[in-house]
Amino acid sequence: MRTLITLIGVLLCGLTLAAADISGTWSAAVTLDAGSGTATFNLKQTGDALSGTYSGTLGEAKLTGTVKGNDVEWSFAAGDAGKVSYKGKLEGGKITGTCEYGELGKGTFVAEKK
pTM of the predicted model, to two decimals? Predict the structure, then answer.
Protein backbone atom coordinates (compact mmCIF):
# COMPACT_ATOMS: atom_id res chain seq x y z
CA MET A 1 0.00 0.00 0.00
CA ARG A 2 2.83 2.39 0.88
CA THR A 3 4.45 1.71 -2.51
CA LEU A 4 1.19 2.52 -4.31
CA ILE A 5 0.83 5.84 -2.47
CA THR A 6 4.45 6.73 -3.24
CA LEU A 7 3.96 5.87 -6.92
CA ILE A 8 0.82 8.02 -7.14
CA GLY A 9 2.66 10.92 -5.46
CA VAL A 10 5.56 10.67 -7.93
CA LEU A 11 3.16 10.58 -10.90
CA LEU A 12 1.26 13.63 -9.64
CA CYS A 13 4.50 15.56 -9.15
CA GLY A 14 5.55 14.63 -12.68
CA LEU A 15 2.26 15.91 -14.08
CA THR A 16 2.65 19.17 -12.20
CA LEU A 17 6.18 19.65 -13.48
CA ALA A 18 5.07 18.89 -17.04
CA ALA A 19 2.56 21.79 -17.04
CA ALA A 20 3.61 24.36 -19.62
CA ASP A 21 4.87 27.78 -18.58
CA ILE A 22 3.77 30.29 -21.20
CA SER A 23 6.03 33.09 -19.94
CA GLY A 24 7.71 34.96 -22.78
CA THR A 25 6.92 37.07 -25.83
CA TRP A 26 4.10 35.93 -28.09
CA SER A 27 3.09 37.30 -31.49
CA ALA A 28 -0.60 36.89 -32.34
CA ALA A 29 -2.30 37.07 -35.73
CA VAL A 30 -5.74 38.50 -34.91
CA THR A 31 -8.79 38.46 -37.20
CA LEU A 32 -11.79 40.56 -36.12
CA ASP A 33 -15.11 41.53 -37.68
CA ALA A 34 -13.48 44.94 -38.28
CA GLY A 35 -10.30 43.61 -39.94
CA SER A 36 -7.03 41.89 -39.05
CA GLY A 37 -3.72 42.75 -37.45
CA THR A 38 -0.92 41.62 -35.18
CA ALA A 39 -0.64 41.91 -31.40
CA THR A 40 2.39 41.29 -29.21
CA PHE A 41 2.03 39.93 -25.68
CA ASN A 42 4.80 39.80 -23.09
CA LEU A 43 3.48 37.24 -20.61
CA LYS A 44 4.65 36.20 -17.16
CA GLN A 45 3.12 33.14 -15.56
CA THR A 46 3.30 32.59 -11.80
CA GLY A 47 1.41 29.42 -10.93
CA ASP A 48 -2.06 29.85 -12.44
CA ALA A 49 -1.79 33.65 -12.55
CA LEU A 50 -0.86 35.50 -15.71
CA SER A 51 0.35 39.10 -16.01
CA GLY A 52 2.10 41.11 -18.68
CA THR A 53 1.65 43.66 -21.41
CA TYR A 54 -0.13 44.06 -24.75
CA SER A 55 1.18 46.15 -27.62
CA GLY A 56 -0.51 46.58 -30.96
CA THR A 57 -2.94 48.73 -32.93
CA LEU A 58 -4.65 49.93 -29.74
CA GLY A 59 -1.39 51.07 -28.14
CA GLU A 60 -0.01 49.45 -25.00
CA ALA A 61 -1.75 48.08 -21.91
CA LYS A 62 -1.16 45.91 -18.84
CA LEU A 63 -2.98 42.60 -18.83
CA THR A 64 -4.00 39.96 -16.31
CA GLY A 65 -5.32 36.45 -16.71
CA THR A 66 -5.17 32.78 -15.76
CA VAL A 67 -3.67 29.52 -16.99
CA LYS A 68 -5.48 26.30 -16.10
CA GLY A 69 -3.88 23.30 -17.73
CA ASN A 70 -3.90 24.09 -21.46
CA ASP A 71 -6.68 26.69 -21.12
CA VAL A 72 -5.46 30.29 -21.14
CA GLU A 73 -7.32 33.57 -20.83
CA TRP A 74 -6.33 37.19 -20.33
CA SER A 75 -7.81 40.67 -20.67
CA PHE A 76 -6.92 44.35 -20.64
CA ALA A 77 -8.57 47.76 -20.95
CA ALA A 78 -8.05 49.59 -24.24
CA GLY A 79 -9.38 53.14 -24.02
CA ASP A 80 -12.28 53.76 -26.41
CA ALA A 81 -12.46 50.10 -27.49
CA GLY A 82 -13.27 49.04 -23.91
CA LYS A 83 -12.39 45.67 -22.41
CA VAL A 84 -10.40 43.32 -24.63
CA SER A 85 -10.39 39.63 -23.75
CA TYR A 86 -8.67 36.53 -25.12
CA LYS A 87 -9.55 32.88 -24.46
CA GLY A 88 -7.48 30.10 -25.97
CA LYS A 89 -5.91 26.70 -25.72
CA LEU A 90 -2.20 25.91 -25.72
CA GLU A 91 -1.46 23.17 -28.25
CA GLY A 92 1.82 22.31 -29.93
CA GLY A 93 3.60 25.54 -29.00
CA LYS A 94 0.73 27.77 -30.19
CA ILE A 95 -2.22 29.37 -28.47
CA THR A 96 -5.38 29.42 -30.58
CA GLY A 97 -8.77 30.78 -29.61
CA THR A 98 -11.26 33.60 -29.63
CA CYS A 99 -11.03 37.26 -28.70
CA GLU A 100 -13.39 40.15 -28.06
CA TYR A 101 -12.21 43.69 -28.74
CA GLY A 102 -14.98 45.61 -27.01
CA GLU A 103 -16.67 47.95 -29.50
CA LEU A 104 -14.52 46.61 -32.37
CA GLY A 105 -16.12 43.16 -32.34
CA LYS A 106 -15.24 39.52 -31.94
CA GLY A 107 -12.71 37.34 -33.69
CA THR A 108 -10.09 34.65 -33.56
CA PHE A 109 -6.33 34.54 -32.95
CA VAL A 110 -3.31 32.31 -33.30
CA ALA A 111 -0.29 33.21 -31.14
CA GLU A 112 3.23 31.84 -31.48
CA LYS A 113 6.08 32.24 -29.01
CA LYS A 114 8.95 34.33 -30.38
Answer: 0.82
